[in-house]
Specification:
This protein is α/β, with parallel strands linked by helices and 614 residues long. It contains 22 helices and 14 strands. The protein has an eight-stranded mixed β-sheet. It has a four-stranded parallel β-sheet with strand order 2-1-3-4, with helices on both faces. α8 packs across α20 and α10 crosses α13. It is globular.
């Protein structure tokens, strides 16, 4: 039986304080946002407000039964926004979802239409390539595409089909722009476990050392990424799913059910049924803009910290919050991290993958444990049930053709992967704020062995990934050092992920050298065992002090104390000029089209957004 109490315990005082601070900071912006939602509310089906010509255009291609209902404009209509493509494993399963959703909607006396599609690119494919410089900006393009899809104002609810890195935050930002509509996110699930993440990483390191051939590397990668579904490591894509569960925007426990599992299709059907129960005409109106409030955003941050999730979300969820009129910053993440226990060990924070995470209890187990200790807000509105977040602490099972939710066991079935709140892997969360004379940065402490939490070593300065890799190949990095990689922020080059040299730094660390990374770029959820100060702000292209670092400067990165500094005399430091960007990577591979975004994008601690400009 579940250990979740019928009455939740008092909230931890730090959680109360941080939440109240966010509420006060956001008061004006949030009230303006909610006022806009009220203006956008309709009265009854949205199609009833369309002119005959509007309706005829919107209904022209519908089949006969759906067209009758659509023309009557009396039945609720679901807008489907999909990230389907058949190149990328996570999105390929969505090919069949629209037809299923339409048929299910008809069974419940409603209709559904594909409102639009959004682009979905894969950081795994573009890693180390010019296309990666479009990755971060794709989030805002997806948000805009979602808004365009819903702009026809012909829908009473939304189902968002998306799962990966920038896709979910983009869909969520776009959905919040239409926050008067009830919205449920429909995942597609992970692929089955293939070659373990630990074995895959080992082959990558051997290849970086020249000890494995390209054929061996490709065989290992293909054995790891082998079928439809998301990748099985706990990077940004699967962190997305954990956060959506904690926000109450999934059907409970939907995140990590495999694409081919019959339960997957049944959960999609229940999402259709449920979103229809949340429309204005249902009498149980729950628009997403009301659901995603300050407490909901804090719950997402807590889920990230408790599971050692992707550092990308210290950027993305700031933008998501801003879309709902809520202001959060890295100090909020850091203060919450001081009280949130680490309850999971999933690669790159351990050896297990997300399938093992699900088998050991999964997201609903983590949510239940945090609620039981007063470390999450239970009193929030969600898409499911009437008990707030307590409604999301049970596991779905298939009985015949129906989904039933059952209580979780009191204890994790694998304590090497998931633990109860009174026996955590660590007493603090997975992320920390670092700051000092180099700026402010985020470090994923949960992935780094504690003996590597302090690094003090001379700087080696690089202005690109290739420069670091070439220095390694030339045998110039066999030493203790801090790699300072600059001009990798959103204004400089779009802030691509920097995993291209993760195997290089990992192999040096395995060889016994003390190494660390300090960069104004990002590395998402797979920075691995390397102590990495990421998203250093302000970025060098904006005059950030990281651009003052010179070759050989002693750099100190200290996760224990939260310090990030160059140990240079103050007078000398103040007299130095910041380096200027000498190369221009704004041409080719579509980068020409994003020059304007690079000029206006906000800092990472403000969401690295091109949508919400100060």
């Amino acid at each position: 039986m579940s250990t979740q109490p019928s009455v939740n315990p008092p909230l931890h005082p730090v959680l109360q304080r941080v939440t109240q601070r966010i509420i006060e900071r956001s008061k004006t912006l949030r009230s303006e946002y909610l006022a806009r939602l009220e203006q956008m509310r309709g009265r009854g089906p949205r199609r009833a407000s369309l002119s005959c010509a509007n309706q005829a255009h919107a209904n022209a291609a519908a089949d006969s039964k759906a067209k009758i209902w659509l023309n009557q404009a009396q039945k609720p209509n679901i807008g489907i926004v999909t990230s389907y493509n058949d190149m990328l494993s996570a999105h390929q399963p969505y090919a069949t979802y629209p037809d299923q959703i339409k048929q299910t909607a008809l069974r419940f006396n409603a209709t559904a239409q594909v409102a639009g599609g959004v682009p979905a690119m894969c950081d795994g494919v573009t890693q180390g390539r010019p296309g990666m410089e479009l990755s971060l900006f794709s989030r805002d393009v997806i948000a805009q595409a979602t808004a365009i899809a819903l702009s026809h104002d012909a829908f009473d609810a939304t189902l968002c089909l998306g799962i990966c890195d920038k896709i979910v935050p983009g869909l969520l930002i776009g959905a919040l722009a239409f926050g008067h509509l009830p919205t449920i996110f429909v995942p597609a699930g992970p692929m089955g476990s293939g070659l373990s993440n630990k074995e895959k990483a080992a082959v990558r390191e051997r290849y970086a050392q020249g000890k494995a051939t390209k054929d061996e590397l490709l065989a290992a990668e293909s054995a790891a990424y082998h079928s439809a579904g998301t990748c099985t490591f706990y990077g940004t894509a699967n962190s997305n799913q954990m956060l959506l569960e904690a926000m109450g925007l999934h059907m409970p426990g939907a995140a990590f059910v495999h694409p081919a599992d019959p339960l997957r299709a049944a959960l999609t059907d229940t999402a259709v049924e449920r979103v229809l129960q949340l429309t204005e005409q249902s009498g149980n109106y729950r628009p997403i803009g009301q659901l995603v409030d300050e407490k909901c955003i804090v719950n997402a941050v807590i889920a990230l910290l408790a599971t050692g999730g992707s550092t990308n979300h210290t950027i993305h969820w700031i933008a998501v919050a801003r879309a709902a009129g809520i202001l959060i910053d890295w100090a909020d993440f850091d203060e919450l991290s001081s009280i949130i226990p680490l309850l999971t060990r999933v690669y790159p924070n351990g050896t297990a993958d997300v399938n093992a995470f699900e088998d050991a209890g999964g997201p609903t187990f983590v949510i239940r444990e945090l609620l039981s200790a007063g470390l999450m807000h239970a009193d929030v509105m969600t898409v499911f049930g009437d008990q707030g977040l307590n409604s999301h602490t049970t596991k779905p099972v298939l009985e015949g053709e129906k989904v039933r939710w059952q209580a979780l066991p009191a204890l994790s079935t694998d304590t090497s992967v998931v633990r109860n709140v009174n026996d955590p892997f660590a007493t603090t969360g997975g992320l920390r704020l670092l700051q000092g004379n180099l700026g402010r940065a985020i470090v994923k402490a949960s992935a780094v062995p504690e003996e590597a939490w302090i690094v003090r070593a001379p700087a080696k300065v690089f202005d690109s990934q290739d420069a670091l890799v070439n220095a390694y190949k030339a045998g110039q990095l066999n030493m203790d050092f801090v790699a300072v990689v600059i001009f990798q922020g959103p204004q400089a080059n779009g802030m691509p992920e920097l995993h291209h040299f993760t195997p290089v730094l990992g192999s040096l660390m395995s060889a016994g050298y003390k190494v660390a990374l300090v960069t104004d770029g990002r590395m998402s959820g797979a920075s691995g065992k390397i102590p990495a100060a990421l998203h250093v702000s302000p970025e060098v292209a904006q005059g950030g002090p990281l651009g003052k670092v010179q070759e050989g400067d002693l750099i100190e990165l200290n996760v224990h104390t939260g310090e990030l500094r160059a140990l240079v005399a103050e007078d000398e430091w103040n007299s130095r000029a910041v380096r200027t960007l000498s190369s221009d990577s704004s041409h080719g591979y579509g980068r020409d089209l994003f020059v304007a975004q690079r000029r206006v994008v906000t800092a990472p601690e403000k969401g690295a957004s091109t949508l919400f400009i100060d």
